[in-house]
Known about the structure:
mainly alpha
Amino acid sequence: MSEIQWPQLIVFAVLFLLVTVLGFVASKWKAGDTLDHLDEWGLGGRKFGSWITWFLVGGDLYTAYTFVAVPALIFGAGAMGFFALPYTVILYPLVFLPLLRMWSVSRVHGYVTPADFVRGRYGSRILALLIAVTGIIATMPYIALQLVGLEAVLRTMGFNGSGLLGHLPLFIGFLILAVYTYQSGLRAPALIAFVKDTLIYIVILVAVIYLPAKLGGWTTIFERSSELLSQPGANGQPKGSLLLNPNNQLQYATLALGSALALFLYPHSLTGILASRGRNVIKKNMVALPAYSLLLGLLALLGYVALTAGTKPLMNNATGRPDSNTIVPVLFDQQFPGWFAGIAFAAIGIGALVPAAIMSIAAANLWTRNIYKEYLKKDASPKQEAQQAKLASLVVKFGAVAFIVFVDPQYSIDLQLIGGVIILQTLPAVAIALYTRWFHVYGLVAGWIAGMGYGFYLLYQIPNPAAGRAHFGGSALTLDKLSLLGWEPFAGSKVQIYVGFVALLVNLVVAVVGTIIARQLKVLNGTDETKGEDYHADEGDPSLKAVAAH
């Protein structure tokens, strides 16, 4: 264990204690008659207004990914890390109408999860199960990313042991998160999000004014960063650049688009939307949430600030390599007074716990509604459902901790991008199905299998020389590795592309072909006795018309 930074630790501990207390108090905040009901524990009673939803969804989408992962990628690779900006710019207009419809349909039919929607839409237990399992698996690496951010902060403050002791901060964060999530459900992260976002805005506004002034201005920062990124890395090639090059432009575009398509497919993103009390709340939030994208852009620039300041990441005692995830915490530790560094560390730590809590709740809802009640106990009471969800939220967090201990990616952002490859495979069954029931269940299942299988195969092909791994080294694939039954259309090409985008295209092609074949064979479009719900535009369906005006 390194020398403890006591000023930072004291401020951090006080603020962390504050949000822990809020996490427990939240069980009484805007509470219904009981928390022993999934609508109350897992969706906050479906009655959050515009401000609460803004903080909740913002806290859900802009996470440790924002504070730790994006600046770390820019520190190590330069311009490629800015894919997060166009991704969040195109996100909201892209999902505006689908989210309104998903809220309306879910409110009418009492859906809690995207798998509930698929079950009702297609009357297929198998397809709903696949969507539920996919959501749970994709959420675990995303939770792990949050815990990486918390661990990076605590290591910077001196908790930097080796072996299992080196992951002690991870377990501490897990225990705190687990206890108040179990107690208060979605109300805990909703209430804590107010504190989290206030701290983040204060820290970033100070950072983007104070640090450039201290280091000679933005012109100096960009010039120095360009020089440092052009130096050769471990493979003898430049580490990065301030501008994209011909080999990574396609990756940048597909990564931005693929990430935008994926974000609101995650169960935790939909949880925040379904917890809102009306369509007007969602409309206001889709207009206001891009304010967080401005924050993300400013935070991303801290990667260049760290380069100019000569900041060196802490060493990972397990691997003996620099841990790029610590670059922003170390920058704050070196450049800020101890008391303000403590505030910044608390912002990162709390910014990790809020989304981790929402994610674990969303995954628990999937388990309870679409696996436990569907297959294990069909007559489960609301109280039994709530209890199952609470227990499942603990299991999901254990899975995320295991992900961190055993995967160890070079950049923590890889955790989110791998999760994106997985969750994108639900797009045909969830997002497209909001508007048409043309796809056949068997076509969707075949597409899911093809997309998921090919996606994991491509991820397996990606090495990471810097981390010493031959496989699962990231999500950027060179086109020369794309092959189909021995056919290599891009042999020799070093242009990169996002694996999730390729896997989604395979999924869609197979789903279309499978649907055409199934319809030609006149196979029943459903795997059980129900035919599935069929509805039309919100203004045309009587059952949705009432909530459309809500």
